[in-house]
């Protein structure tokens, strides 16, 4: 798996630029900067994350950036329909690609346990030009235009979620090692069939949907935004999750226009 070290939030970047790693934008980021100068980096992060954890959301975000320490960054999409296209202002796509693709190039739609690619411009599956919606299979290569190539993976036997990876030289905006198409669960851990493979972890961690929100579960004790929890916990839009051998962060992204 490719590592996105420049964008992954290591310990030094959290100390110097907490507004980019721990939070999204707006008043909470401003509060972080003020607290940073008053009470120090660690206390500032703890207080701001505590405030954000109690703030209700008007609606659940469907686009998040998932940063996994020591692994990389991932675009986490929780909606059933995903629009792929060019990374331009107001393009209205869920997966913006910096490359030679149309502004709105293709849909990938989840229908039950299946995924269907719907071409809006030139799309090939396993080299064959598509002129109608086509069901995807694990291992398929999807070519958009002349040069952008994505691989489709759906390998976990207990989850309907899937993974898209850019196999060509282009990248997404923001940059991501993979795009996670989350159905009901997204599984992180050491198994090769997991959606995010984390070789140094001793156990699986499961992100799952419940109601309109996103939750996390893993056996034993861990922390969410610095608060001790056991076995499972709800998550807010911007949060950190840390256990004995794992650490990751979720950051809300703007909804597609």
From TrEMBL:
Q: Which Gene3D superfamilies match?
A: 2.60.200.20
Outline the extent of the FHA domain.
Answer: 83-145
> Which Pfam families does this chain map to?
FHA (PF00498)
Which parts of this chain are annotated as the region Disordered? 1-20
Signal peptide, first to last residue: none
Output compositional bias ranges, type Basic and acidic residues: 7-18
Q: What is this protein called?
A: FHA domain-containing protein
What species is given as this protein's source?
Answer: Blastopirellula retiformator
């Amino acid at each position: 798996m490719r590592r996105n070290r420049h964008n992954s939030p290591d310990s030094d970047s959290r100390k110097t630029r907490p507004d980019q790693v721990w939070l999204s934008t707006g008043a909470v980021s401003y509060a972080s900067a003020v607290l940073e100068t008053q009470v120090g980096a660690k206390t500032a992060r703890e207080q701001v994350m505590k405030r954000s954890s109690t703030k209700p959301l008007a609606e659940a975000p469907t686009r998040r950036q998932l940063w996994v320490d020591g692994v990389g960054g991932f675009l986490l999409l929780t909606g059933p329909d995903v629009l792929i296209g060019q990374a331009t202002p107001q393009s209205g796509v869920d997966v913006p690609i910096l490359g030679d693709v149309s502004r709105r190039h293709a849909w990938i739609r989840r229908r039950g346990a299946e995924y269907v690619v719907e071409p809006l411009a030139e799309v090939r599956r396993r080299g064959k030009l598509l002129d109608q919606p086509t069901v995807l299979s694990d291992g398929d290569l999807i070519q958009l235009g002349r040069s952008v190539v994505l691989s489709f993976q759906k390998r976990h036997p207990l989850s309907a979620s899937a993974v898209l990876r850019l196999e060509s030289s282009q990248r997404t905006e923001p940059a991501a090692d993979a795009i996670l198409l989350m159905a009901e669960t997204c599984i992180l851990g050491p198994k090769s069939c997991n959606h995010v493979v984390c070789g140094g972890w001793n156990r699986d961690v499961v992100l799952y949907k419940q109601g309109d929100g996103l939750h996390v579960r893993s056996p034993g004790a861990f922390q969410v935004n610095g608060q001790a929890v056991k076995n499972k916990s709800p998550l807010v839009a911007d949060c950190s999750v840390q256990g004995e051998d794992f650490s990751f962060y979720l950051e809300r992204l703007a909804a597609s226009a």
